[in-house]
Amino acid sequence: MKQHAFRKTVMVLAAVACSAVSSTTAHAHDTWAVMQDYTLVKPAAPMLNVVSSHLFSFPAKDLVTTDRVASVLFIAPDGTETRGVPAGKDGFRAQHDLKSPGTHLSVVVSPAGFSTKTTEGYKQGKSKKDVDNVISCNYSEKFSKALFTVGKAGGNTFSRTLGHSLEIVPLQDPSAMKVGEVMSVRVLFQGKPLPSATVSGVYAGFSNDPGTFAYSTTTNKEGIAKVKLIHNGPWLLLVKQKSAYPDMTVCDAKSYSSALTFSVR
To answer: Signal sequence span per UniProt (predicted)?
Structure first.
């Protein structure tokens, strides 16, 4: 009975979160990085894809082509950084085999830019000053992380802060956690804890309906949110933030998104 009540609460919270997101960014796709394999049993060059979608699935769909990605980086448990290089039209792999055992972090930065809605449709890469008949303008920055392991989970790279405008920082290593445990994350905005931020989570296979999440919670005054890992397999956590653009003659708003994927045993 308690489990049923908890699931019902989660679904209600998720529906509220999805409604809030869709009302403000209905046309915008979310972006995240997904590993092709979250557990490497031996040293290898891991592969990842970047996704632009409203539906979290595994294997990934709605892949972003490599020319639409600004940078890919792999960070080992010992702090060693390895550049990601294109592998086909929509994949990336580490430049060489990753040998350090433990939990690794992959980091994807998407190109920042304008999207302006006009009476003739959306104009990508154009500000209000570049086009006529403007309805609204948004400038976006998107950041994605993925945690994976070589051998067993270990090390502190999972909690490394990267200085992104908006960032999800795990306070426990989800790669070492099991179903039913509670994971804490800190959300940072411009390097400072962000209170009252909505953290939405979903595991692969939860729903075939776009924009549907399995879990939703908010950060406290220290920017910390707790997420109960209610299912095994790949997970996505997503946070968004919006603010006014500094010069309203150029654009109306700045939007930020941060995504984290990982796999639960």
So the answer is: 1-28
pLDDT over threshold 60, residue 15 = no
Say whether 255 sits in a helix, a strand or coil: strand
The region that residue 211 occupies, defined by phi over 0 for left and psi between -120 and 50 for alpha, beta otherwise, is: left
Would you state the structure tokens that stand for residue 78, as one six-digit string? 């010992």
What count of Cα atoms within 13 Å lies in the side-chain half-sphere of residue 190?
A: 6
Range of the domain at 108: 2-264
For the record, the structure tokens of 249 come out as 């003659």
Residue 150 near residue 100 (C-beta atoms within 8 A): yes
Radius of gyration of the chain (CA): 18
Q: Where are the beta strands (DSSP E) in 119-203?
A: 121-124, 134-150, 166-170, 182-189, 192-193, 198-203
Domain count, the chain: 1
